[in-house]
Amino acid sequence: MILESDDTDHDDNILFGNDTSTDDSEHGKNSKTVFIESKKKPSNTQSDSSYNFSNYLEIYEQIYKFYCHDEHKQWQLLFSDIIKQSSTPYQILYMFLDHTLSTTNNKKHKMVIPFIEQFKQIKSLNKNIELDETIKHNILLKICRRCLFSQLESIIDIFDLRSIDNRLIVINFINEQIEQHQDIIFISQLTKILKLFEINAIPFEKIIIPLILKAQWETIKFVVEDNKILQRKLLQTIDDLISTDKTKVRCLLAEYSIGINSNYIDIHILKRAARKLLKQYNFDLHDFPNLAMHEKISFLKTLFVRKYLERKNICDNEDDESWSEQIKELIHDNRNLQIKLIDLFVDYTDLDSGDEWARFYNLEDFEIPEQVRIHRQNILKNDTITRSISIKPSICLTKQLKDNIYKPTILLSDIVYIETDSDVDPFLNRFECARCNVGSHLPFVGFDCETFMDPTQRTLNSQIISTIQLASLLISRNQYLYGVFDMLALRLQFDIKSLAELAQRLFCSRDFILLTYNYACDTSSLIENYPSMNDALMQGTAVIDLFRVQQYILEHCPQVFPYYDVLLNSKSRGLSELVRLCFGRPLDKSMQTSDWRKRPLKQAQLIYSVLDARVLVDIALLIEKRTHSLQIPWSWSNFKGYIWTNKAFKKRVGMSQKLENS
């Protein structure tokens, strides 16, 4: 128990002094006078059983005054006299606590525990003090509603709410509150009471569903703790709530008497929460079918965005085939996903493809949208069909669009493909030996990685690293050198120590500057795939994040970018926008939807993969040249090393530890 006291007070049990009843100090006499005078005043009530606290307000304020001045013996004496002279001492305690918690004075709120502890001392000397039946309901309705969680245990104990008879009252009361579902904060507080009771009288689902629907995640965390059974139950409950079958959801709510309209459930919030919990608890996605379905639908929508929006004017038959293969693997024989696929083709006004895929999956007319059904009927009748918007532009348009993207010449012969661990050291040595050929600073090495989301994996939002790419300009030969590390092959050959050493040579190198873009995002994927890389990634002493360089230049010296236009005021901060600022054209993203799982990689994929790493070096060289010509002071050392926020640092360290343990 922590009490407020001055520096000279070292008595840990100051509340429980044995001389309180015989205190003859001036304050003691004054406190008795206040109490006696208050008893002489006319009362609006006939007995102590009244809930009218007005008779005690003056005494209460005197107690508070003593408390604020650390005159503990004085307020204890006054409070004890009130309790001892009452025929219903529990009711007096209840009224004092109720009045204390109903105020907005936080200093007064600190008196709750001292009041209770002093009452305990009085009760220990008088075994005949009994709890009034009339106040039990109000203890739950008012005191437990307003008190802090740190005060809850003491309130439960002093009012003996753990007794067999009182437990039943508490359980019935909590049941009623959950079914009424009027005050979710109060329900959260009552849920904590049940947890402190360590009883399972109310089904877990009945307790947790209202908390889930009102996003009371701190309370949920308190209830579930590290109990794997309850963690699985929590995810299973969320999985049931996000079912696309509304009848099942309504039945679930009715089963536990939860009076909420299922149409008002925010599926998006629940999905986001479930994704986090799935990672946090380390469960398998496929154990939760509704969540798996939603995740696959999200991934399906992502594939459509990439095909129809991000590269809608680029014609690439190989990429279209890769896209179709990913669709087939994702959907497999799931009828609901097959129907959803056709709906998406309608959304993107591609009725031809919608009809082709509907035929591929043998979907009946009643299973497909009306637009596709009419389109199919017109084909069967050999009528003239008004074709949907074509997604394959003319050859001239395709060439024109390709001319408007930044795609420097990259020779396949300059790319070193590394798929065995014995090839790693010789390649990195070439970069490390290049430092002697550079003057004012270490050589630049661009870094990037290609990832994919595998629908067969445990969590769809986990990025699996396919390749790591490096690029550097060898000044002595005026030639670029590229390296593509096949991580799907190397991860089978590397042990934990080898991966840690590789990360150390890359991210903490003393022989080159490692250029990245949005380093924080890269580290999340790398740590999730390779936890042993964590230490080197978090140090990042060789890293310069061009995302932060971009932010600095735009704020302090935007004229460094040749194609900066204040009138455009572009809000984009991606790498493609940075390339446009430097070279007047956005970055080539034509192969973004390629299947990076399959081996061997196509030549076009190899060239595309090193492009992002190459442009980072091009950008750094251009910034260096422009700042020099504009006579703007510039030093790369000001940007070297990555400074983590506390939140980001804790998140990545925690992620690494959890993955290593699992």
UniProtKB/TrEMBL annotation:
Q: Which residues form the signal peptide?
A: none
Where does the record place the region Disordered? 1-48
- Which InterPro entries does the record cross-reference, listed alphabetically? 3'-5'_exonuclease_dom, Exonuclease_MUT-7-like, RNaseH-like_sf, RNaseH_sf
Which species is listed as the source?
A: Rotaria sordida
- Comp. bias regions, Acidic residues: 1-10
Give start and end of each 3'-5' exonuclease domain. Answer: 442-625
This one is known as 3'-5' exonuclease domain-containing protein
- Biological process, per Gene Ontology: nucleobase-containing compound metabolic process
Q: A Pfam family matched by this chain, by name?
A: DNA_pol_A_exo1
Q: Which Gene3D superfamilies match?
A: Ribonuclease H-like superfamily/Ribonuclease H (3.30.420.10)
* Upper classification of the organism: Eukaryota, Metazoa, Spiralia, Gnathifera, Rotifera
GO MF terms, alphabetically ordered: 3'-5' exonuclease activity; nucleic acid binding
